[in-house]
Design a protein that fits this description.
Elements: E1 4-6, E2 16-21, H1 25-33, E3 41-47, E4 54-58, E5 61-65, H2 67-70, E6 73-76
Antiparallel strand pairs: 1-6, 2-3, 2-6, 3-4, 4-5
Length: 77
């Protein structure tokens, strides 16, 4: 069963597909520039000991996102 969750809650080593961004302005532009567009596969790789930030694999790169940003990215699981 497919459902949509925030990227922050996607378990490590689980593939998610970006569905949409729940943000506007400069943060939305930054996320789009990083390749966070609908249909893109993203995988959480590592969590810091405190759980924030989390490293993600996206389009052949590894990026780290803070919790407040990851909560604004909705993924299909």
């Amino acid at each position: 069963m497919n459902h949509i969750i925030s990227l922050y809650y996607l378990p490590v080593n689980t593939i998610g597909t970006i569905e949409h961004l729940d943000c506007i302005g400069s943060i939305q532009r930054r996320l789009l520039d990083l390749g966070m567009i609908k249909g893109t596969r993203i995988i959480p790789l590592f969590k810091s000991p405190a759980g924030d930030p989390i490293a993600y694999s996206i389009r052949g790169s590894v990026i780290a996102l803070r919790k407040e940003d990851a909560l604004n990215i909705k993924v299909l699981v």
